Amino acid sequence: MSGVQQQRDFAARIRQPEVQALLPGITAERMAVYEELFFNNVASLVGGAFPVLRRVLGAERWQRLLRAFFTEHQASTPYFLGISQEFIAWLQQGYRAEPGDPAFMLELAHYEWVELALDVSDAQLPERGWSPLAWPLAYRWPVQRIGADHCPTQPPAEPTCLLVWRDRQDQVRFMQLAPFAYQLALRLQAGEPPVQAQLELATAHGLAADRNYFANARALLDDWQARNIWFPHPED
Predict the structure, then answer these.
(1) Fewer CB atoms near the end CB (10 Å): N or C, the chain?
(2) Which of 51, 141, 46, 60 minimizes the C-alpha distance to 90?
(3) Spelled out in words, what is the top-level CATH class assigned to the domain 1-101?
(4) Burial 29-66 (b: 16+ CB within 10 A, else e)
């Protein structure tokens, strides 16, 4: 048996000890130590990335979810952020729901991952334009309010628009946005000049682009500038 095949068989046994045979020359007791070590390592990484989801699901369901992820998904990275990204991908593609799983599960996990991703990002605040550390997001569920003591069963009529960003003090923060502010943030993030973005939004929503309209938009832009979200060009 080749070394590569031995590694594959070892990994298969680690992931599915109940169905995969023991490798020749390794006792069941020794293999059990490896199995527990690998599973606990993944459980620690994933649990640290999704603390709210873990508490919402409860210990038993969380352990079953982790075991399914560990068994079914072949992780390609040992790193904290990478494992959490792969967990999100598995929830989107390979996860099989159980009765009682909350409908907001994937969105809550994504929101928690965003906080982690911004916290460890190597991106820097720009001199001009929209910060790469500021992400406008829209969810069906009010993910920023969900917790073990608040688990809604129906989404609100309107989507929850959020802006999550890392400021100059490297603190990750969030604010809820009105739909207009969310759309303006998306346009600025895409590099659209602010005046053009405001005019096009006014047209799209049937709003009068008058002095009051631009004053309200300017107040929003000034607030984002003060929070290290948007850095205007001199002509802005």
Answers:
(1) N
(2) 46
(3) mainly alpha
(4) eebeeebeeebeebbebbeebbebbbebbeeeebeebb
Cβ neighbours of 198 (radius 10 Å): 23
CATH fold for domain 124-236: Outer Surface Protein A; domain 3 (3.90.930)
Write b or e for each residue in 87-105: b if 16 or more Cβ atoms lie within 10 A of its Cβ, otherwise e.
bbebbeeebeeeeeebebb
pLDDT tens-digit series, residues 210-231: 999 999 999 999 999 999 999 9
State the pTM of this model.
Answer: 0.83
- 101-123 pLDDT, tens per residue? 999 999 999 999 999 999 999 99
CB atoms within 10 A of CB 16: 13
Same fold across 1-101 and 124-236: no
Would you kindly state where each structural domain of the chain is located, as residue ranges?
1-101, 124-236
